[in-house]
Amino acid sequence: MTSMGKTRRAVSVGLCAAAVTAALTAPAQAADGPARRDAAGWSLKDTGTDVRFRGLAPVSRKTAWVAGSKGTVLRTADGGRSWLDVSPPGAQDLEFRDVEAFDGRRAVVLAIGEGEASRVLRTEDGGSTWTESFRNTEPKAFYDCMTFFDRRHGLAMSDPVDGKYRILSTGDGGRTWKVLPNVGMPAALPGEAGFAASGQCLVSSGPQDVWLATGGGATARVLHSADRGLNWTVAESTIPAGDPARGVFALAFRDRAHGLAVGGDYRADQASPQAAAVTGNGGRSWRQARTAPPAYRSGVAWLPHSSSAALAVGPTGTDLTTDGGRTWHTVDSGSFDTVDCTPDFGCWASGEKGRVARLEF
Q1: Which tens digit of pLDDT belongs to each residue from 66-114?
Q2: H-run or E-run covering 65
Q3: CA distances from 203 to 100, 228, 256, 280 (A)
Q4: How far is the C-alpha of 39 from the C-alpha of 17, rounded, in Å?
Q5: In the 8-state DSSP scheme, what is residue 275?
Q6: Which of 297, 300, 315 is CA-nearest to residue 353?
Q7: Dist. CA 119–CA 208, nearest whole Å
Q8: What is the chain's alpha carbon radius of gyration, rounded to the nearest angstrom?
Q9: What are the C-alpha distances in Å from 42 to residues 296, 299, 328, 349?
Q10: CA 20 to 30 Å from 347, out of 64, 81, 223, 309?
C-alpha cells in the first residue's frame, strides 16, 4: 500500500471510530418521538439457551464464540443470526469461564474450579472435536482466566498456591501447557484471589506484556509482567477491596501503557463506589475515575481504533467513556458479564440467561 493509501485508510478508520462513539452517545429517540437512525445500541441475538456466558471471544462482526455454564460452547458465523452448539462431549458438569479464539475453527476454552475441575480444551475444527490439553492436578489451584499474546503463546492464571499466583504457559497454541516458576511472582495478600467473572482478570497487549487483576485482600491490586509471566511487579488500584466480593474484576489495555480497570462489589445489595480506574504508565500506578460507573462492572473493552472510547458492562448496564476512562456514563440498562471488540468494529457482549448481543449502528 502506498503512503497515500495508508493515510487515507488511517483517516477512514479514525472517522469510523468517531462515528461509532457519536452514535453511542446519541439518544435512541429524537425529541419528537421517532427512533434515531444514527443511534447505536446492543442488538440481542437469540442463542436458544438460558445458560450464563461469561466467556466471549469475538473474531469479527460475523464470527464469535461464547462459553458458559453446563459445559456449553456456541459459535456463530453469520453475526449472531444463528448459533451452532459445539459444546465438548461429556462436559455438562464443567463451568467454562473463558474462551480465546484465533478464527472460526481454532479456539481454546478454560473450565474453572478446584482441583481437576480446572481444565483447558482445544478445537481445530470449529468445535466438531475437542482435545483436553490440560487438567489441573494441584488440589489448591483454581484457574480463573487466560489470555493469548498471539496464535501460539498464551497464559492462564490460578488463584494463589502456597502464597503466590500460579501461571500456566503454552507456546503451541494451547496444545501443551506447563506451570511457570514462581520465583518472580510477588506474594499474594491474605485472602487475595482473582475473579472468574468475565475472562478478563488476565489480559495481554503486544508480544510480551500481561496484567493480572486481584481482589478479596486488603487492597485490590494489578500485577504486571513484561516477559510473558516470568517476572511480575505489583501496584495498588483505587478500586475498593477488603472483602471477598470486592476488587478489580476486569482489565483492558489498548497498548502496553494505557489501561482500564473496573470492578466493585458483585453482591446486588451492596454499593460499588469508585468502581473504575485508569493508568497511562502500564499499570505502575492507577488513578480513580472522576465519574465511575454507578454500579459493579465485570467486563471492559476499548472501542476499536479509538484512543479514548471504551465500554464497561455488568449486571445492571453498560457504560461508555469517551475520555480514556476518566468519566463514564450509562448507555444501556441490560445485563451482561463481559464485552470485547474486534478491529472491524465487531463489539459483542454476553451474560446471564443466554444473553449475547452485538453493537449495531
Answers
A1: 999 999 999 999 999 999 999 999 999 999 999 999 999 999 999 999 9
A2: strand 64-67
A3: 11, 11, 11, 16
A4: 14
A5: -
A6: 315
A7: 24
A8: 19
A9: 19, 15, 17, 8
A10: 223
